[in-house]
Amino acid sequence: MMALRQTASCILGCIKKNMTSRAREVILPLYSALVRPHLESCIEPWGPQHKKDMDQLEQVQRRATKMIRGMEHLCYEERLRELGLFSLEKRRLRRDLIAAFQYLKRPYKKAGEGLLTRAYTDSTRGNGFKLREGRYGLDTRKKCFTMNVVRPWTRWPREVVEAPSLEEFKARLDGALINLI
Predict the structure, then answer these.
(1) Statement: the pTM of the whole predicted model exceeds 0.90
(2) Closest of 98, 1, 87 to residue 43, by C-alpha
(3) Helix, strand or coil, per DSSP, at residue 117
(4) Residue 142 has pLDDT above 70, yes or no
(5) Which of the ends of the chain has fewer CB neighbours closer than 10 A, N or C?
(6) How far apart (Å, rounded) are the C-alpha atoms in residues 106 and 115?
(7) Tens digit of pLDDT for each residue in 46-87?
(8) The three-state (H, E, C) secondary structure of 67-80, written as one string
(9) Distance of alpha carbon 90 from alpha carbon 80, whole angstroms
């Protein structure tokens, strides 16, 4: 994980040294194409659970957003909102929720039957499409995909989780994620 973070940081340094323009139209596509894939490849296989590890990865994105002209004085969250980006943690959550939607709905429903279990309740609160958490004795199992998805999925509003299509789900999810602090 550290090697990929360092690679991403070095690439960002090369962009900073070699690009004379600090315009959003120049820096943002370079960051998205060359740097962010390295950061996201750190998140997927290892899934950093410690805040320190996640902050180290997020620091690279902080530097990238600060490089853009006119963004230097804004706080990190405002820079992300202004640029239409999500933090790496939110991007991971978004990716996991999209995968859960695909497992629960059409494309991969057959494959997801044993992966995620729907909780049938009489409760009228929430979204009405709640998932049931499994019980695991090991702490390592508590950090897996299914556990990372269940709680956030259950908290989303009904209009998000009951979207009719994947594209509609993504649009509604992005709208909800923007408002999530």
Answers:
(1) no
(2) 1
(3) strand
(4) no
(5) C
(6) 15
(7) 555 667 777 888 899 999 999 999 998 999 999 999 998 998
(8) HCCCCCCCCHHHHH
(9) 11
Contact between 56 and 5 (Cβ < 8 Å): yes
Torsion of CA 146, 152, 153, 154, to 10 degrees: 110
What are the Cα distances from residue 90, in Å, to 20, 58, 145, 165? Answer: 31, 11, 14, 21
| Segments making up each domain of the chain, as ranges | 2-85, 92-179
| The pLDDT of residue 111 | 59
Question: How far, in Å, CA of 15 to CA of 31, rounded?
Answer: 8
Q: Taking each helix axis from N to C terminus, what angle separates 88-104 and 51-67, rounded to the nearest 10 degrees?
A: 110
Q: Are 107 and 166 in contact (CB under 8 A)?
A: yes
**What phi, psi does 85 have (nearest 5°)?**
-110, 160
